[in-house]
Amino acid sequence: MSDPAVQAQNFPFVSIVIPMFNEGKNARRSVETVCSELHSSGRSFEIICVDDGSTDNTRAELELIAQQTPEVRIIGYGINRGRGMALRQGFTASRGSFVISIDADLSYHPRQISELLKRLEAPDAPDIVIASPYMPGGKTEGVDPFRLLISRMGNLLLRQAMGRKYYTLTGIFRGYRHEVFDYIKLYSDGKEIHLEIIAKAEAAGLQAVEVPAVLTSRRHGKSKLKLPLTVFSHLMFSFYERPLLLFGVLGLVLTLTSLILASYLFYLYLNAALNPTRPIVWLSVLLLLAGIQMASFAFISTQITLLKKELFRTQKEILLLQRDSKKDNRGQ
Ligand SMILES: Nc1nc2c(ncn2[C@@H]2O[C@H](COP(=O)(O)OP(=O)(O)OP(=O)(O)O)[C@@H](O)[C@H]2O)c(=O)[nH]1
Ligand SMILES: [Mg+2]
């Protein structure tokens, strides 16, 4: 029989993944707070700190902490590759039955980890639990109003793109059943990984639910958020997930404008005042053609999106079948 302590260390109940880039001012506080929350919960755990190419004292701090704290593991690589890549590395290295991702700046207080775990352990447990400051019951405290406005608007748009199911799609603080990462393959290197996870999980038929959470502002260190890039990538994601949002709306606007112009031209014609060589005549025809073109794009791209989702679901089914057949073979 193996030693239960070793067993708990090799296969902990939960893995906490914390990406850290230039978080020297937060590393210790963050790890210590997570540790004390989990120690008081009585659960076995590991904390995986992912540092990729920090130029401050993050790595030195982490190495000191790891010497004093057996639950802490440091992984990383020399070049900075972004938050998405760091999270993917952390998920791959994780050994817990559940995985929690959280940021290093304590903007989501780790005392909320127990809420996520409670949901993940419930009898009707979902596959993913999203900490949601924007859902009814959730809240934000002391967040810069401009950042909050951009984030709220972005999440509203994404909510539309994702079928009005979720309120907070951009947050890092989430809990997962470990199997989630077997079913979906992730490729994002940046912050859009949070969207990729939910989109792929949805497509694969996994269940994600939100729980109300409190988001505060970081007190130490600098934000790593590149706002213009994030806004751009999130907009692209919305159009990618729901092409109708872009092509459908454009098609409608172009067609309606052409119809308004055509009505005006018809009115001129009835009053014998129409000059057929006027550019406006051609403009209205062009707008109509462009509108029809956009509507066709909307139709085709929607079909492709549906097909893509069907593929994800099939992939997951194949994986489950392979697992079942492996289990059966072992049982024989
Ligand atoms: N390893 C690694 N971690 C990163 C990278 N970019 C961001 N992070 C970490 O990801 C977490 C979230 O980044 P933040 O800068 O807090 O971004 P945010 O939470 O969207 O915005 P604020 O909290 O308002 O600053 C933090 O723990 C960062 O240290 C990166 O390139 N590599
Ligand atoms: Mg943060």
Describe this structure in words.
The structure is a single chain. This protein has 332 residues and is an alpha/beta fold. Helix content is 54%, strand content 14%. The chain has 2 domains: 222 residues, Spore Coat Polysaccharide Biosynthesis Protein SpsA, Chain A (Alpha-Beta Complex), CATH 3.90.550; 88 residues, no CATH class. The protein is built from 11 helices and 9 strands. A 7-stranded mixed sheet has the order 3-2-1-4-7-5-8, sandwiched between helices. It has a two-stranded parallel sheet with strand order 6-9. Strand 1, helix 2 and strand 2 form a beta-alpha-beta unit. The relative contact order is 0.11. It binds guanosine-5'-triphosphate and magnesium ion.
Give the SSE layout:
Layout: H1 4-10, E1 14-20, H2 27-41, E2 45-52, H3 58-68, E3 72-77, H4 83-93, E4 98-101, H5 113-121, E5 128-132, E6 139-141, H6 145-161, E7 174-177, H7 180-183, H8 193-203, E8 208-212, E9 214-216, H9 227-241, H10 244-270, H11 279-331
Parallel strand pairs: 1-2, 1-4, 2-3, 5-8, 6-9
Antiparallel strand pairs: 4-7, 5-7
Helix pairs in contact: 6-9, 10-11
Bound molecules: guanosine-5'-triphosphate (GTP) and magnesium ion (MG).
Summarize the structure.
The protein is α/β, with parallel strands linked by helices. It has two domains: 4-225, Spore Coat Polysaccharide Biosynthesis Protein SpsA, Chain A, CATH 3.90.550; 244-331, no CATH class.
| SSE ordering | HEHEHEHEHEEHEHHEEHHH
| Secondary-structure-derived class | alpha/beta
Looking at CATH, the homologous superfamily of the largest domain is Spore Coat Polysaccharide Biosynthesis Protein SpsA, Chain A
β-strand amount: 5-15%
As an assembly, this protein is single chain
Number of helices: 11
Bound compounds, please?
guanosine-5'-triphosphate, magnesium ion
Q: What CATH first level of the largest domain would be assigned?
A: Alpha Beta
- Summed over residues and divided by their number, the pLDDT gives a mean of 92
Helix content: 40-55%
